[in-house]
Amino acid sequence: MSLKNASIVYRMESGEGRRVWSGVSLDIHRGEWIAVVGPNGSGKSTLASVLLGLNPLSEGQVQRRTNAVTQATRGVLQLPEAQFIGETIAEELDFLPQAGQLTAGERRSWYAEVLAAVGLSLSPERTMATLSGGQKQLVNLAAALAAGPEILLLDEPTAMLDPASRKEVREAVRQAHQRGTTIVWISHRLEEVADASRVVGFGAGRITFDGEPREFFYGEAGEKSEGFEEYEETEKIEKLKKFDKSEKVKKFEKSSPCVELGFDPPFVIQTAMHLLEQGLTLDPLPLNMEELAEVISCR
Ligand code: ADP
Ligand code: MG
Prior knowledge:
CATH topology of the largest domain: Rossmann fold
Radius of gyration: 22 Å
Bound molecules: adenosine-5'-diphosphate, magnesium ion
CATH architecture of the largest domain: 3-Layer(aba) Sandwich
Shape: globular
Low-confidence stretches: 225-231
């Protein structure tokens, strides 16, 4: 699916148009995991509503492989309750087109299957109101996945959840991705970005960054891991001696798209930046604790 030069202009009560999204072009490839980041009001949820077919474009085009928007793209949004139609889990799942083709007997095992796909083993008779926030989002995720979407869209689904529930949602999304679902995950949590194969950054209604996570965090240094590998050992030591530490960090922060978008890089990235500042060569530049531990223990 792709967006070509898409813009959205909202009509204000005064009749005046307010352009909140302009010139957005984005190709979403099958099997990708795209993390969408950006400050509040930068147009991320607008992307969600465009991809879900809820918001017509004022300019530009959206191209989909099929026209069945509801089947091709399914989403889980920020507020768990906002998406419920049914009163119980069973009622909620009965709204899926798949349910219509099943007998009452078949449905019982189908409910269990759909819930198990996100690690839930709840009675389908449970009313939504009795579920925790995390369970609600997992039910929403289960319903979205049961529709077999090509693209799973998540708009800050973990914003209201505790760390344990966040982890469960993340794990269920990882498994869906492994089964071949394309993921578009809008998030405020930069640690959720490390799972992505691609980062799209929004600033004031425009795409300001589109690239790999390493490049997003480390800037140009992440495009090609920077180091002194090409130098002989003695030369390396000479280079390190001359090295101005503060310069290097300044350079990182200036060229890091993550910092440019107003985010503090996650702890691991900051740690790695400080190690680089001390003159260490980290190759590859780490994106998570495991990678950091590995790159240091290999030295
Ligand atoms: P984000 O999800 O990144 O916080 P949104 O996509 O929700 O940002 O909003 C982008 C901009 O569009 C904001 O300035 C917001 O106020 C504006 N906006 C969103 N929906 C409407 C609407 N229905 N009418 C007018 N302005 C809107
Ligand atoms: Mg939003």
